[in-house]
Amino acid sequence: MIEFFINRPKFAIVVSIIMTLAGVLTFMNMPVSLYPSVAPPQVQITAFYPGADHNTIRDTVASVLEQEVNGVERMLYIDSKSSNDGSYLSRISFEIGTDPDLAQTLVQNRVNKAMSKLPVEVKQLGVTVAKVSPSMLLTINLFSPDGSYDGLFLSNYMSLNLRDSLARVNGIGELKIIGEKNYSVRVWIDNEVMAGMGINELDVTAAIASQNTTISAGKIGENPAPQGQVFQYTIKTRGRLKSIADFENIVVRAEPDGSLVRIKDFARVELGAEKYNSMSKLGDLESPLMIAYLAPGANSLQVAKDLHAEMEIISQGFPDDIEYEIAYDSTLFIKTSMAEVYDTLFEALALVVIITFLFLQNIRATLIPAIAIPVSLVATFVVMQMFGMDINTITMFGLILAIGVVVDAAIVVIENVERIMHEEHLPPKEATSKAMKEVTAPLIASALVLMAVFVPVSLAPGMVGILYKQFGVTIVASTIISTVVALSLTPALCAIMLKPSALPTKGPLGWFNAFINKMMGGYGATVGMLSRHILITLILFGALMAYIAYLGTNLPGGFIPEEDKGNFIVDISLPEASTLDRTITEVDSLTNQMKQIPGVKSIVTANGFSMIKGALATNAAMLIVTLDDWEERQTDELSQASIMAQTTQIMQGNREIKSLVMSTPAIPGLGATSGVTMILEDRLGRSTESLGPVYMQLAGELMQRPEIAVAFSTYTANVPQLELNIDYEQAMLLGLEPAAINTAIGSLFGKRYVNDYTRFGKNYQVNIMSDAKYRNDESDLESLYVRSKTGEMVKFSSFAKFETAIGSDVSARFNLYNSTQIIVVPAPGFSSGEAIAAINEVAEGLPDGYAHEWTGQTYQEVKTSGGMMQLFLLAVLVTYLFLVAQYESWLTPFAIMLCVPIGLLGSMLFVTLMSGTLNLYVQIGLVLMIGMACRNAILIVEFAKVLREEKGLSVIGAAVEAAKLRMRAVLMTAMAFILGVTPLILASGAGAASRNTMGHAVWGGMVSATFLGCIFVPVFFVMFQFIREKLGSKTETADVADKARVAEQQRQSG
Where are the transmembrane segments (predicted)? Predict the structure, then answer.
């Protein structure tokens, strides 16, 4: 078949052109993302219980729903938050690969079964089940530069004019407005005036419910009708009230004298906000903040592009003095990072071509791999699409590293053709034919070795398996295609393009050749010496193995390196029970200081919201800090890490607050923040407050560990509260019904939802609540009344009183246990793996009944950390078995496989020197080194085997001759690979940490496998060939000896 391409070069060229065109067309239509979809699918349950505190929600909503949902098929874990603002939010995480739609359906079915057990108020407002992603795509701020519009108007303008349009953008999972102030008809009751009229809140509720309603009045003349009925009329009624004046004029009671008591007689009615517990700002301007979350499986770049386009269209209809800004866009990092990766790819390609020319020293010869490389790389996109893959960081890293692999095949062919042309003086076509007979088997073997390495690890389950598969398919596909090209296009081009020529002996290239020849002479002598002193070789190899074990034991574990993403988040908590106004004042002071930090571009503030709690809290705030572009931040002082450190100093300067400065997670969808995320659980069902002492002890011990810089949690059991103690016996003596008392409490101290008001085509809540002057402090209990059975208005203070208390403001549960989340930030110089190990050690001392678990990114890190060694050993085993089948020998493959630990030595040593960790990129690099080290060794062993078994050279002679014969080709391919990886090591800007990490592992390993491995491989061949012949059959040994004698006689006679 190879002869066919040599004789018909145009056919080979056409095949390659078609492959390239197919690859280009595929590339143009492939989606782009930062990482493949590896985040566990999540389903969110939300409910609302107006006026309820977190304990009530936990006991009546959380426990009911979670007891039913727990254990749903393919569930990983379930966590929830019940808050004092009446909200309940639960997220169920599923195994990677679960269909999000199926997960949502499974959860919905379980929730439906629990609905009958929920409080009426919760069922009235509804329970929502939706598939979600915690991946924050971008933020949109709406503001009025000149202050023409207030926050209430802006919030509702955003809700009415932005949210509905943006929700229709394909790929949007959720649009959450922080600082949302939905319109609501607020009925503010003057309690003393109302009590003087003998009216209570139930009267008001009933009046509103009965007069602000829709009626299905029917029709006149509808069938069946009397004979001769010729018309049919629909009866219309007023329906819901249309204006605030209508609500003010609702009749509550008709007096005996014919006068009417209306709501406006004892209450103030306005179109206000449904909630007043949060407020967002952009800079110094009040600005509602909309956070767009990505739908599971959606492509972030495309969705963000569509959102930007939709906002441009919507903004054209904005009134004067309303503008918008997208201050945070997560895809900016993705686009910049991928652009950097593309640059790295082209830099690697250029360096590989240069090093190829340096060794071949022939323009014609250099053009052949320069043509073969793009064909192999571009055609790989077709295979990637066949496997359902996209263009992401992992696949692009695979292509960058594949440059050195694909050029390897072309160089082996070209170098061997030129050698034969030079040594045997054959014309190009005949030299190509003869060269292909020698290198076809090693080329195929080398390609199959990489397949043998990556196929087993690509079958690993979960997130690691997906990432290995993405990288492995890219490498294997490019390698197979490059082998096909090396067996078709490359020999065809060699036959028509190469011309006999001698290597220069003068000038820079002549000096380079002299150096290589001298090095090859020294290399051959070293191999010969070590081959005759195998014991010394084994001692040296043993020392290297011991050092590898030392490095492997002391190299810290990790997951994904921290990147400069150009943004970070600050979570702030003020003293418990702080009002929203106080929070705004303190946070404004902090942001004003942060604006002075060089490199800070903008700060979005969400007052009243805690990202860590995942809930609204008046004493909390979240800051989204966006930095200048990476091109403007080239120095260490302007790096994200430096700016985060300066921000931390500012936060620590304010003793009134607790804060955590954190970056977004390395892989979108794996939690809301970076860092190590653990869950402290109470497994004996004690109160939420009982976690307090245990948490404080655990956090204190964690902070004593050198591996840990910060152990942060928003948990507190010291929130000042008022406990209303009701003497029900006294109340009943006063003629009060307990049900009436309980109903009155919800209306007087909290808002009571009555029904809805329709405006702008949407429904808004109608809520009644005591006016602010009756809710200032506990003494206002004197102004609150409840009506007795006899109609008398009885003061609350006559049967109830407030007592001060402390407690928590949020009830968190994890897998049905009361819990609190703790975010741990590793200390500088320590990895996440070391922090996890330290936490495990400290957690061993937890009191009985308490335990810890992991969530988010840390859950995946812990889950995958134990399987790396098994996957690695499996890859080594499969590679060895393949080589056994290839060489029909159990011993010869050891000469190749023993080069693997030498490559790993270089990888781990260089990673250690660069203060790296054994993270996911390093692990992928180590797996790649199995194949690359074997490829180098195969070229030497294959030729040594032929020289020994077919040419009859002595074992040592065959090893030395093969080493010298293939050294230039090995050195050429290795240097091409090493220089191709060098741009990864030198990378800077967005995504540089990942590129650096991958580069360190592969660059160091390849240097070691080349310059140390190539010394040991021939010696290993000698050792195992001696053993093989010693243990082999007499016939086989005699044949080899006969060939050796014939070869020796020919040399003597020659």
Answer: 12-32, 341-360, 367-388, 394-414, 439-459, 471-498, 534-552, 867-887, 894-914, 920-941, 969-990, 1002-1024
